[in-house]
Amino acid sequence: MERFVVVGGARLAGEVSVTGAKNIVLKLMAASLLAVGTTTLTEVPDILDVAIMSELLRRLGCRVDRDGSNVQIAVPERPGHEADYDLVRRMRASITVLGPLLARCGEAKVALPGGDAIGSRGLDMHIAGLQRLGATAAIEHGYLVATAPRLTGAQVWLDFPSVGATETLLLASVLAKGTTTIDNAAREPDIVDLCEFLLAMGAQIGGLGTSTLQVEGVDVLTPTSHRTLPDRIVAGTWAVAACLTQGDIFIRGGRAEHLENTLDKLVTAGAVVTRSPDGFRVQMQGRPRAVDVVTLPYPGFPTDLQPMMLTLNAIAEGTSMITENVFEARWMFVNELTRLGADVRTDGHHAVVRGIPQLSGAPVTAHDIRAGAALVLAGLVADGVTEVHDIHHVDRGYEGFADALVALGADVRRESGPDPLF
Ligand code: UD1
How far is ligand 1, taken at its centre, from the CA of residue 162, in Å? Predict the structure, then answer.
């Protein structure tokens, strides 16, 4: 059992570097299954989810080697086609192997994923989309089982611009026969980076960054090298941290253009944001002002930064309304934040947050990656000591989180051993 012990009161100042995005690199790793031979990914973060995906690929017959921040994936002529429950349940992104395995092997059997406790995360759009491409796809004994001798291009309309469903359909259709159109596709930078990776492998995709993607299927793809796009959620976490602690952080590698909505909110809260070619700087003087937030698919405010913004509002001057439109169970985090004294009331999709000058340290538990990071930030603006338990969630998405916080002046340490709560 490991936990972060956070002593509140520090103002964060200095520089922090952002590595490649978790949510992108996992998909690039899965997409490498589409081509026989060795694909190289660079700027790969050293986080638990990358280790889980590496193991998943190894079990499918790939060789995965890490050298610093580079990962090489050697894909065999005939990979396996089954992804087991013991790995998949630990990470929802495992579902991304479904499309490539179906395209390459004509069959795929992937355990229904687990991952974060942030709501019911259906796969109905993945399944319906694959069926439109001619596959049989159904849930059997806890597995999503799909078969298709060769997928055939089709027009697919998504009910919601789901990141995961867009990825599954892209990865299935690049090797399909004929043209696929994905309408109401997700427009996240994650999707654009995945498309660029696929283009470098020889895929034919149009409409990058728009809600209509056109894929012209090709017969074969070839391995490539690709630099992973910097993590906009990690960059956004540091941006909120600067604002929250009335600090001054230069976020090296952060791409402000992928965080326009978030940075605009921070400016409304009183921060000064300065952009430069190699990152951006967030400076804050005085207590933040309360700011309303509505989460939406990109380019709307990212749901993954909602817990951090809620934390900011918890100590802001004034009252705010946070509306969560993407993951309904993200309010589990609110129960933890109220243990630190936050004044938050939820009703359906909405949370009303009345800012108080300071939180008060207490033991709390992380239920997902982003909630875990937000609770650590909350500890920075709490009086006394905050212990954040179940930090394996944070390890899934943030490389060297505690070390980076310490370098910025925070009093945070990682403790392991028997959990004093039990
Ligand atoms: C990805 C990210 C996650 C981020 C989310 C939205 C990864 C590993 N995770 O998750 O961090 O918060 O995008 O930006 O990249 N849904 C269905 N049926 C489906 C598919 C989705 O009902 O077939 C629902 C989900 O339950 C959820 C919503 O659609 O309520 C959005 O899901 P989606 O955009 O697919 O998110 P993920 O790809 O799971």
Answer: 5
